[in-house]
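TASK: fixed-backbone design
INPUT:
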């Protein structure tokens, strides 16, 4: 099956996750991803754990379906190759610190002069404007700076980071979406453009705190949420017979919950109505819900009772437990993909289910510089002998990992 993005070529200068996550999703949809790695070591993500036989599980997941050319861009010859490749691409994705590309003439204005239809996506910690634009940063920095980390953890404990690289991934999804609109704009107008995404902006954009603080006249100062939400009740983590579960009951579900508990009187109890009062008095309500949840013989009984009553609830699962859960399996979210070094590897599947492309390609992550000859021959008409000479001079690099 032809992918929805077949025919689009992407020059991927990104490293680690935020940029690589964008091009990973584009590869699933059939885009030709030309991954330029900096010689001699390539993308630093190749060293991130878990590493087996010199192969990073992280790199395999984030770089499937890409073709790798490894270039020493600190050499004049190498930098010239990157410029020539940029002229042959529809899209360029990068996540370098401010100034890295500018010093090499790979900034948008310079590339636009050579390729006016180019759509360029820059993903960085703080964006390309503002007083913090030149500061380095990774996922955890964005979690801290956006306010998310302040709200994560126990109210009486220190701030805590999320268990996943949520800032990197959020920026990647924003970048993926932005490129779609930029390409639509180009199809309509013929114009390329530059997209600037800051990880901190992507995280800040998720927050609902601003309007809450503003409309409260400044009286609402959010703190770490911990086990139970301070403004909406009952929304929190409860003990169930076999572990923990998140129960989330908004106003519409409140009568359903009281009926399921055998306590319809709570639906009209002035201590727990309306929802704002219920939140204020949740210390009285939470123990009653907790007691009810522990009356069931097992988790299946809890979840079935809530399903019948239309009460939203889900188990708090260990990430390893998700691998075999029927819901994820049914939606093809647990995939086993081939790798030339370590054999088949489990990865998280593609979250977008397109009716126009119901099947996903069987693609693998590249070895370092694996496609040097293929890409330079195909795109720049450089023959195999010259590629070998460039490798011998250290302009190109190749490895079996």
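OUTPUT:
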């Amino acid at each position: 099956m032809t992918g929805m993005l077949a025919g689009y070529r992407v020059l991927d200068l990104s490293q680690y996750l935020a940029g690589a996550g964008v091009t990973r999703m584009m590869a699933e949809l059939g885009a030709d991803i030309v991954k330029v790695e900096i010689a001699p070591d390539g993308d630093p993500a190749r060293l991130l754990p878990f590493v087996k036989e010199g192969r990073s599980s992280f790199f395999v997941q984030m770089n499937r379906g890409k073709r790798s050319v490894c270039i020493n861009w600190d050499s004049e010859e190498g930098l010239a190759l990157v410029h020539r490749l940029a002229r042959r691409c529809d899209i360029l994705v990068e996540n370098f610190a401010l100034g890295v590309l500018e010093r090499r003439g790979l900034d948008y204005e310079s590339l636009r002069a050579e390729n006016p239809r180019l759509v360029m996506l820059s993903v960085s910690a703080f964006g390309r404007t503002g007083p913090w634009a030149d500061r380095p940063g990774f996922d955890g920095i964005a979690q801290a700076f956006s306010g998310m980390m302040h709200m994560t953890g126990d109210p009486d404990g220190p701030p805590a980071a999320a268990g996943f690289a949520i800032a990197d991934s959020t920026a990647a999804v924003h970048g993926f979406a932005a490129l779609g609109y930029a390409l639509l704009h180009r199809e309509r107008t013929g114009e390329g453009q530059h997209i600037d995404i800051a990880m901190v902006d992507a995280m800040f954009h998720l927050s609902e705190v601003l309007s809450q603080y503003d409309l409260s006249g400044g009286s609402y100062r959010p703190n770490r949420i911990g086990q139970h939400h301070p403004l909406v009740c009952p929304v929190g983590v409860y003990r169930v017979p076999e572990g923990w579960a998140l129960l989330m009951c908004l106003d519409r579900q409140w009568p359903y919950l009281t009926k399921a508990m055998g306590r319809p009187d709570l639906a009209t109890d002035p201590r727990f109505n309306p929802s704002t009062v219920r939140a204020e008095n949740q210390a009285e309500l939470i123990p009653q819900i907790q007691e009810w949840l522990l009356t069931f013989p097992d988790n299946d009984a809890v979840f079935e009772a809530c399903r019948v009553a239309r009460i939203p609830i889900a188990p708090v699962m260990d990430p390893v437990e998700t691998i075999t859960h029927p819901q994820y399996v049914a939606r093809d979210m647990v995939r086993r993909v081939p790798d030339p070094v370590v054999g088949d590897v489990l990865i998280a599947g593609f979250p977008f289910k397109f009716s126009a492309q119901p099947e996903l390609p069987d693609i693998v992550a590249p070895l370092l510089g694996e496609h040097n000859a293929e890409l330079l021959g195909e795109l720049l008409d450089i023959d195999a002998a010259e590629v070998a000479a460039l490798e011998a001079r250290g302009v190109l690099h190749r490895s079996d990992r």
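COMMENT: The domain at 235-320 is CATH 3.30.1540.10 (formyl-coa transferase, domain 3).
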